[in-house]
Design brief:
InterPro entries: Acyl_CoA_acyltransferase, Gcn5-rel_NAT, GNAT_dom, GNAT_YJDJ. With 105 residues, the protein is of the alpha+beta class. 24% of the residues lie in helices and 32% in strands.
Length: 105
């Protein structure tokens, strides 16, 4: 029996989304709208065949780490991204302080 490969997360700017691949297949994505100084996450989706494997968390963590490196502010319109940030307070600083109340953070 072969073990599943480690998921791979990449930014696909042409599609305006971060994508996660698992076992060689597209397993999910996080759509965004990029602005000069910020990125708005608008929708995250994991294919039902891949649910329950922590891929949503891996996708969001990697996307936010990439965004942090680029020095962008995060606007978490997507409920999944917003909930993830709320349970990982070390990422709260990515959301501008004056926008946190809007996102209930």
């Amino acid at each position: 029996m072969t073990s599943p490969t480690k998921p791979d997360v990449v930014d696909n700017p042409d599609a305006k989304r971060f994508e996660i691949r698992a076992d060689g297949e597209l397993a999910g994505f996080a759509e965004y709208r990029l602005r000069p100084k910020s990125i708005a996450f608008v929708h995250t989706e994991i294919d039902s065949r891949f649910e329950g494997r922590g891929l949503g968390s891996a996708l969001v963590r990697t996307a936010l780490d990439d965004v942090r490196e680029r020095g962008l502010a995060v606007l978490p319109y997507c409920p999944f991204v917003r909930r993830w940030i709320s349970t990982h307070p070390d990422y709260l600083d990515l959301v501008p302080a004056d926008k946190r109340a809007e996102f209930e953070l």
